[in-house]
Amino acid sequence: MFYRPADGHGLPHDPFKAIVTPRPIGWISSLDAEGRANLAPYSFFNGCGDAPPLVMFAQTGRKSRPEPLKDTIANIRATGEFACNIVSRALRQAMNLSSGTYQPEVDEFELAGLTKAPGISISAPHVAEAPAVLECRLVKIVDDLPSWREHAFNIMVIGEVVGVHIDDAIVHDGRVDVLGYNPVARMGYKDYTTVTDIWAMERPD
C-alpha cells in the first residue's frame, strides 16, 4: 500500500509509529521552578551528537489536559536542566505507571515506588534504580514544528550530556553490557520490546 499522511492511511490504527521502531525511551526527570520533581517517559528520544554528547526528545501534544505544554517541557524551560533515565526491563512497569496524566504536584517517583537520587552536575534528580542516567543541560527547544492537532504542539528538546551515571554491575571488560539490563524500546500501538540479541558488523571502510 501507499498513502500520503495528509490524506489518511485508511487503517484502523496509524502505522507510522509501528514503522519507526524500535524507539529507545527517554525517561525524563526534571524539577519545576518550585523544586517539585517530575518523571515521564518519551518514546521520541535518541542521541543526536557525540562530541559533545547530545540527546533529544520530543513531546507530541497534550491530549487530556488543556495546557499546551507537558510538565516536563515547562520544567526544562524554567530550569534549563533534565536527566534521561534508561529504562531496563526490570523497570518497565514503573515506567508505564509514570506515563499517566497527573497534576504537577504529583511526584511520579513516589507513585511508581522509585528511589529519587540527587543529581551531581545538575539539580534535577534521577531514578536510582536506572542502569544508566544522562544528566543534561538544555541546548535548545524547537517549538515551531508543524502539528495537525488543534491546541497541541510538536516540541523538540535538545540537551548536552554533562554527567553520566552507569551501574558498575553492567560494565564488563570496559564495555557497557546491554544484555545485562535489557533496555526497553517502544514499538507501535501499545507494543514494547526489549533488547535481547546483539551482533556486530565491520564497516566496509
Short structural summary:
By secondary structure, the protein is mainly β. The protein has helices at 16-19, 71-79, 92-97, 108-111, and strands spanning 23-24, 26-31, 37-42, 45-50, 53-59, 81-86, 116-117, 126-127, 132-145, 154-166, 171-172, 175-176, 184-186, 192-194.
Task: Please tell me about this protein's structure.
- 11% of the residues lie in helices and 36% in strands.
- The chain is mostly beta strands.
- It has a single domain, classed as Electron Transport, Fmn-binding Protein, Chain A (Pnp Oxidase, Chain A), CATH 2.30.110.
- The protein has a 7-stranded antiparallel sheet, with helices on one face. It has a 3-stranded antiparallel sheet with strand order 1-13-14, with no helix packed on it.
- A hairpin with a 2-residue loop joins strand 4 (45-50) and strand 5 (53-59).
- The radius of gyration is 18 Å and the shape is globular.
- The relative contact order is 0.20.
- The mean pLDDT is 94.
- Reported by name, the CATH topology is Pnp Oxidase, Chain A
- Reading off the top of the CATH hierarchy, the class is best stated as Mainly Beta
- Tell me the number of structural domains: 1
In the CATH classification, which architecture applies? Roll
Bulk shape? globular
Number of beta strands: 14
